[in-house]
Amino acid sequence: MNCPCCSGKSYEECCKPYHTGEKHAPNAEALMRSRFSAFAIPNGEYLMETTLPSKRKFHNKKDLQEWGEINKWMKLEIVNKPSISKVEFKAFYTDDEGNNQIHHELSTFKMVQNRWFYVSGEFLE
Ligand SMILES: [Zn+2]
After folding, report:
1. 113: exposed, middle or buried (Cβ count in 10 Å: 0-12, 13-18, 19+)
2. Any bridge partners for residue 115, and if so which?
3. Where is the YchJ-like middle NTF2-like domain (predicted)?
4. How many other β-carbons are positioned within 10 Å of the β-carbon of residue 4?
5. Beta strands 72-83 and 86-94: pairing type?
6. What is the pLDDT of residue 118?
7. 24 CA to middle of ligand 1, Å?
8. What CATH architecture does domain 16-123 belong to?
9. Domain residues of the chain, as ranges?
10. At 4, phi and psi to the nearest 5?
């Protein structure tokens, strides 16, 4: 199958090794892409694991899993990478009522002991 993150590569050659824990995402964009794929699949466990440990209390695995499930994840577009730890993206999805939605976010990531984690996101119009 094509990777849900729209890289043009197969899932096996793209986000799957990150989801299975075989490899860690080497940079913020790769982590961002793998998190988008994890919503599409969905894989709430991976979304929690890739959140900075001190920020995990603001999220819960069940909600992440459900958010992934109820929406149909159509496309990911990387808009800008203002620094090595920031990625601006648009996630295109169809909600449970069939409306097309765009989630536009500037995400901040952080590297801790050679692994990238999602810290937080700023929602943009
Ligand atoms: Zn991918």
Report:
1. exposed
2. 112
3. 27-121
4. 22
5. antiparallel
6. 98
7. 13
8. Roll (3.10)
9. 16-123
10. -60, -20
Q: How far is the CA of 5 from the centre of ligand 1 (A)?
A: 4
pLDDT in tens, 83-119: 999 999 999 999 999 999 999 999 999 999 999 999 9
With CA atoms as reference, report the closest residue to 96 among 125, 73, 75.
Answer: 73
CA distances in angstroms from 13 to 9, 19, 32, 87, 123, listed in the order given: 6, 12, 16, 22, 30
CA of 96 to the centre of ligand 1 (A): 24
CB under 8 Å to 104, separation ≥6 — which residues?
Answer: 79, 88, 89, 90, 91, 123, 124, 125
The neighbour count for residue 5, using CB atoms within 10 Å, is 26
| pLDDT 10s digits, 9-20 | 999 999 999 999
- CA–centroid distance, 3 to ligand 1, in Å, is 5
pLDDT exceeds cutoff 90 at 29: yes
Residue 83 C-alpha to ligand 1 middle, in angstroms?
21
CA 123 to centroid of ligand 1, rounded, Å: 22
